[in-house]
Amino acid sequence: PSHPQITKDILRMIAQYLRANGYNASAAVVADEAQLRFSEQQSKRQQLKQLRRAIVEADWETAAEVLIKTCARKSQRHCLYLLYRQQYLELVHAQKTQQAFTFLNKRLKPLEGHLSGCDGVEAQEGEFAELCYLLTCRSIRDSRLFAWWPGDLRGREMLAEEVLALARIDEHDQKIGGQGSSALGGGGGGGGGIGS
Predict the structure, then answer these.
(1) CB atoms within 10 A of CB 154
(2) Of 120, 134, 50, 119, which Cα lies nearest the Cα of 87?
């Protein structure tokens, strides 16, 4: 292509494709040779800001879309689980039992098999069963695993911090060629669930 911006965009897409398919070293070489690193870092920062804003404002559709773009494939399911768990807890808290039940079956149930062993992060034993149990509770505080949940807004803020930390770990792993393993020490869960 004759226009330099078109060439740069094509190279950026090639680097994104390589990263998405696990060719981190090749993506780094292409990015370095094409001098894309600065604009990619700027773009990543913008995406992280957008992700945080979407989570805190409960714009769940946007949050899921940006999360999928931002997080590496290896942690996407875990991050989506955290996002969906927050949405579910908010539905239960608002006593929208039928919506919560539908959401549990449609969004959380498909991720149940991916809860343990995700990047070294283990779900607490019986977490999915406890999510089901919440449908019968008067309050989330009645649950032994989710009594820590601080409510809608603070829960979203904690979720945003945890997901952004995972996205930053992914970014760090990509910078070092994807050779590091990302294990999350203790975040956002305050004692309940994945990431605690």
Answers:
(1) 11
(2) 134
Is residue 174 within 8 Å of 72, Cβ to Cβ?
yes
Cα four-point dihedral sign 36, 62, 177, 172: positive
The CA-atom distances, in angstroms, between 83 and each of 7, 60, 124 are 36, 8, 17
Phi-psi region of 95 (alpha: psi -120 to 50; beta: other; left: phi over 0): left
Hunting for tokens 């940006």 — which residue is that? 66
pTM exceeds 0.70? no
Helix axes 73-93, 60-70, angle to 10 degrees: 160
142-191 pLDDT, tens digit each: 999 999 999 999 999 999 999 998 887 756 555 555 443 333 333 334 43
Task: Check: CB of residue 81 under 8 Å from CB of residue 121.
Answer: no
Instruction: Point out the residues of the chain with pLDDT beneath 50.
Output: 117-122, 178-196
Could you tell me which of 19, 194, 67 has the C-alpha nearest to residue 118?
194
Rounded to the nearest 10 degrees, how much is the dihedral formed by the CA atoms of 81, 119, 62, 66? -170
